[in-house]
Amino acid sequence: MKQLIAWAVKNWQAMNVIMVGVLLLGAFCLTKLRRDFWPDFELYVLNVSVVYPGASPDEIEEGILEKIEEAVRTVDGIEEMTSSAREGLGSVTLELDPDANQDDAQRVLTEVTTLIGQIPSFPELAEKPDIRLKTNFVTAIRVAVMGPKVPDSASENSSSSEEEQELQNWDADEARAEASLALRRVAERVRSQVLALPSVSVADLVGTPDYQIDIEIPEQTLREYNLSLQSVADIVRANNVEMPGGTLRGRSQEILLRGSDKSTVGEGIEDIPLVSEPGGAVLTVGDLGRVRDEFSVDGSVNEVNGQPAVLVSVETTSADDLIKVSEEVREYVEREKGNLPDGYTMIAMRDRSTSVKNRLELLSKNAWMGLALVFIVLALFLEMRLAWWVMLGIPISLLGACLYMYFGGQTLNMTSMFAFLIALGIVVDDAIVVGENIYAHREKGKSYRDAAIDGAYEVMPSVITAILTTVIAFAPIMYMEGRIKRLTVVLPMCVGAMLIISMFESLTILPSHLSHRRSRFLDVLGYLLYPLRPIGKLMEFANAGMSRLLAWVIDRLYTPTLRWSLRNPAIVLSTLAGLLILSVGVVRSGMVPFLLLPKIDFGFITVQVTYPDGTPVEVTDAATKRLEAAIWRVNQRSIDEKLTPDPDGLVKAVQRTVGSSGDEVGTSISSHVGGLFVQLNDIGERTVSSNEIVQMWREESGRFPGAEAVAFGATPRGPASLPIEMRLMATGDNLAQLDAAIARCKAKLAEYPYVSDIATDTRQGKWEYRIKVRDDAKAMGISLADVAGTVRASYYGEEVMRLQRGRHEVPLRVRYPREERNTLVSFNDIRIRGAERVERPLSEVAEVDVQRGYSEIRRVNQMRSIGVVADVDETRGNAFNVVADLKANFVPQFEQEFPGVELQWAGQQEQTEETVNSLTLGFLFVLGAMFLLLTIQFNSSWQAILILSIIPFGFIGAIVGHIVMDIDLTLFSIFGIVALAGVVVNDSIVLVDFINRRVADGLPLHEAIIDGGRRRFRAVLLTSVTTCAGMMPILLERSKEAQVVSPMATSLTFGLALSTAVVLVLAPVMYLVTAKLAPPPEEA
Q: What pTM value is reported for the model?
C-alpha cells in the first residue's frame, strides 16, 4: 500500500486531473439532480375495488370483501390486507412486503387477478372487480379554477304562491347545474393546457363528481301511460344505439355500414320517442319527464375563497423534478388566468415545492457556513496551506457523492441533505489525521516528499479501519423495518459514498498536494486574493497564538488530568458509568420524550367535521361556513397582532368542501362530512407555527353540538401517522363487544388534558329500510326480487347504458324525480307489478324493518377492525408518556373487560416499535462487525473491546444537549448519535494506535499512554471541533424550517463536546485497565 501512496505523490498531475474531474462532474450532476422533499421509493400496493351500486356496507362485506379476502389470503408476498366497505363500494388493499420489487409486484398482480376471476359468484348487480397496481404519484401543486358564485336558492317572496315558489326553485336548480357544468368545462380546458407543459406528466381533476344523465319520470305519469321504469329503460336502450352493419364491397372501394342514431347529451335524449297517442302524436322522453345532464351527486360543495371551484391536481412521478414542475405550473397560472372567460379565475395552491425549496436552501446555506467555519478552525490549528488542502477534501467528497447519486437515480432531498450535513465534519477527519501526521513528520526534518509518504503510510491502517467502522455504523439504517425505511435508506448510502471517496482522497490526492513546498494553484490563488493578504497575516498570527495556547493546555491541563486519571481509574470509570446510567434513566422516564418524526410545518392546516350519517347537507354546510368564518377571524387577528409582516395576514387560500372527507367528491355524497383546507403563508414569514394557528382556530370556532367529531390538523398524515392510534379487532360472535370497547378507549383518552381530536375511523351509518315480502303477496306471485328491483330502479335508477363522451364514461339512468325520492309517501306508493300484471302499492305487499349499521366497515387481515386515533399537544405533554401509561394501567384491564377484542398499536407507535427494535438488532450486528475489524487492526480483542466500550458515553452528551435545547428525541437524533459513534471510534482508533507504537518503541506503559495522548491531543481535538463547527450553523438556526434537522445537530454537537474529553481521558484509562488483563501487541 505504501507503493500506492508513493505513486500518487510521484504522479501528482494525474491526482490533480482526478480531483478537477470529480469537482467538475460532481458540480454538473448536482445541477441535474431532481429535487423532492423525501427520497423516491417504490410503494407496491395492490387495490381491488368493486362497485355495488346502492348496497349497504354490511351487504358489501358479506357479498364481496369476505370472498375476495378468502381467495387471496394464501398469495405469497402480501404483508398486510386491509378492506373497507361503504355505501356502494367495496375495496381490498394488499400491501406488499417492503422489500418487494417490480417482478414481485407483477407476480402478485397476476396471481390475485387469477384467483379473483375464479370466485364463483358476486352479487348480480355488482360491477366487475377493478384490480390495479397503484402507481406512486405525489401531488406537486394544484390549480384551483374558480367560477362565479350562484345563489343557494331562489329569492323568496312572501307574496309568491306555492306554484311560483316551486318554479323559482326549479330555475335556481337549473342555474346551479348550468354553472357547475360550465365550470367543469373551463377546468377541463385548463387541465389540457397544464398537461401540455413540458415538465408535467400527470394532471387530473379533483373536487368534482362524475358526469351522469338521469331521465326522471313521475310515478303518476308512468301509470297514466301504462309504463314502468324498466320499460322506459328498454325503449330508450332500443332507440339510442350505434351498431356496425358490416362492409359493402364495391368494385372500386369498400364502404362501412353503420346504424347510428345515438345521442350522448341530455338534449338528444329528450327527443327519443316513448309512446304514441291514439291521434298519432308521438310523446318523447322530454314530454313525459325531465332529463338532467349533470353530475352523479347532488348537494356537494367545493369552494376556494368562497367561490365554486374545481381543482386540477398536478402529480409527479419518480422521473419528475418537483420544483421544476411547480415553477412551470405557477408561470402558466400567472400567464393564462387573464385569458379565462369573464367571471372565472384561477390560483395555484398546495405547492409542495415551497417547503422543499425553503428547506433545501436553508440546508445549503448552513452547509456553506459550516464549510467556512471548518476552514477557519483548520487554519487556526494548522498552517494555512495545510488547512486549505485538508478542507478541499470536503467538496471533493460531497461532489463525488453527487456523481454517485446522479448515476444511481437518487434525488436531492431532505434525507440526502442530512447526509451531506452529517458528513460535513466527518469526512475531514481522516484528512486531518493524515495531514496532521504529515505535518509532524515534516517537523522532524524530513523532506516534503518523504514526509508525505511516511506520514500517510503510518496512519493508513488506522484511517482505513476508522472509515470502515463509520460506514458500518450507519448500516442498520439501511435495514430498518417499516415504512420509515423508505425515507432513510438513502442516508447511509450517501454517507458511505462520501466516506469512501474521502478515504481515497486523504491517502492519495492529499499526500500528492503536501509533497511540494510550493503549489502553483495556491500561488495563483494568492495573487487573486492579494487584497485579503492582511487577513492571511492575521490568520498566521492567530495560528501561532493558537499553537502556544494548545501547548499550554496540553502541558498545564491535559497532562496533569491524564496522570491523575491513570492513578485513579476506578473513580473515572464509576463516575462516567453513573452518568451513562442517569442518561438512560432520563430517556426511559420520559423526561426527554421520543418521537419517531417531529411535526413538520408544511404551511397547511385542516379541519374535518363529521355529523351522524344521514344528517342533512344543510347542517354540515352551515358548520363548515362557521369554521371558514373562524379562520378568517384568526387571519385578521394575525394582522392586528403583527404575527406576520404580510399585510394580507397568515391565510393565503381556504378550500371548503361539503359531501366528502377531503376535496375529492365520490360517486355518492356523504352529506354528514365536511372539511376545510387552509394554505398559510411561508413559515419564514410568520412568528407562529401551524400548530399554534390550529389552536387559535380551535378556540375561535367554539363547539358544534351534535357533531360526532371535529378534527383539526396541522400537518399532512405522514409515514408515521398520528401520535396515538389504536386498532381494535374482532371476529364472529365478538363483534358485539366492539362498540363498548371503542367507547371505553375514547373515554380513557379523554382523561388526558393534552390529548385532543379523539376520533374513530367508523361510525353509525344511515337508517336502513329492510324490505320483506308479505306471505299473501308471495301467493300473488310477487317475489323479493320483484320488489327489490322496482325499489332500486325508483331510487337508484334503472341503468340504460354507458355513454362515451370524450374521455368520460357517462351512465344513463331512469328513475323517479328528485322530489318523489325525498318523501316517505312516495316510497310507500311505489307500484309493484306481480305475475298477474296487476300493480299494487309497496305498503300492501311488503313489510319494512328499520335498522342501522355502520357508515363504513373496515377489516384488517380478515378481521373486523375499528381504529381509535388522537393527537397530542406537544407543548403540554407527549405521546410517549400517554402510551406508556396506557400500556401499564389501561391495557391489562381492557383485555380482561373485553376478552374477545384484540387491541393493537398502529400508526406512530407501531412505527416507533418497529424502528427501535430493528435498529437495536442492527446495532448488535454492527458491534460484531466493528469488533472483528478492530481485532484485525490491533491484533487484540481486548483493545477492540476498549474502543467499543467508549461508544455509549457519547450518548450522555446527546441527552444533555436535548435537555438544554428543550427538544424531543427523534429519529434524526439517532442519526446524529450514529455519526457521533463514528467520530468517537475514529478518534479512539488513532489514539490507541499511537499508544501501541510508543509501547512498541520501549517506553514504560504509563509514559507510553501519556505520550500517545499528548501526541494525538491536537488531532482528536481538531476532528471534534471541525465536526462541531460544521454543525454549529444548524444548531444555532432559529428559523422554524430547521425544526427537523436541529435534533441531529444537537446530538452530534453536544455529544462531541463531551466525547472529546471522554476519548482523551477514558481511552487511556481503559487502555491501562485492559493492559493489566492482556499485554498490548508488540506491533501496531
A: 0.74
